[in-house]
Amino acid sequence: MNKIILMGRLTRDPEVRYTQTNNTLVASYTLAVNRRFAKPGDERTADFINIVAWSKLGEFCSKYFKKGQQVGVIGRIQTRTWDDDQGVKHYITEVVAEEAYFADSKRDTEATANTFENTFGNTAPGSMGSDFEVSSNDDLPF
């Protein structure tokens, strides 16, 4: 099973691109996810995780997600490789978002954006859920 659940703050506004083959929208952004524990005497650290959202979910993220905002993402981990123009092979691991949610209140968003920028600076490397919906417990297979 390949499933990941993350909650963190956006390090920048989502970046939107379109595929060359069929003009599909893809939004990419990075989440700063705090590590659960810190060594005694050390500050808490964060991991910076690349997120990719396709089509309607990508459109939602690009429209409503902003730098510093806390969001939740459910998705899967994907690794891929490519060769650049000089023939150098590159590897990347990213999360392909399947669901994305607002994780802080609107009132907290503005204050958080300022705090985030003061903490991580400008150069730190709501929801649209799945289509699955249960109308009653009778619909569940267990």
Which band does the percent of strand residues land in? 35-45%
What's the number of structural domains? 1
Named at the architecture level, the CATH assignment is Beta Barrel
Order of SSEs, N→C? EEEEHEEH
User: What is the number of beta strands?
Assistant: 6
Average of pLDDT? 83
What distance separates the N and C termini? 19 Å
CATH class division: Mainly Beta
- If strands are numbered along the chain, what order do they take across the biggest sheet? 1-3-4-6-5
CATH-defined topology: OB fold (Dihydrolipoamide Acetyltransferase, E2P)
Provide the low-confidence segments as ranges: 123-137
Task: Please describe the biggest sheet, giving its number of strands, its sense, and whether it closes into a barrel.
Answer: 5 strands, mixed, barrel
In CATH, what is the homologous superfamily? Nucleic acid-binding proteins
Total of DSSP H or I helical runs spanning 4+ residues? 2
Which bin fits the share of residues in helices? Answer: 10-25%
* Overall 3D shape: globular
Structural class: alpha+beta
Rg to the nearest angstrom? 17 Å
